[in-house]
Amino acid sequence: MIQLVGQCSFREKERISDDGSEISIDSAQRAVATAQRKLGQLVHEPALSDLSNVDRSFLVYMAQNDGPTKISDIKARFNKTDSYVGNYRRRLLDAEMITTTGHGEVDFALPYMRDYLREHAASLIVEDFDSQ
Asked: What pTM did the predictor assign?
């Protein structure tokens, strides 16, 4: 992410600067947004494409929280048994998509995944319906 922000900052600087000697705050802010989009394309999309519909739904449910998610909240959102939710929790831990943060809590392992899912949750849900 740091490399992406740096690269995008220099491109923004060259695009709008008369003398090209300084990166403005505005250029840096636009570069961060651009880098986050690229991170989504280069990291998040491929990681999500390897997951099942239920795995992705689990992550979308997690993205509804601003921080770590209680497994009990995921269970309530799925309206499924402990073993059902536990199975997908284990799958996502093994895939290194989530990490444990405390007893009965998980969070995203990949930076900015929550933001990506919040932006793209509708398309993930549409894909779920298309594949059923």
From this structure: 0.76
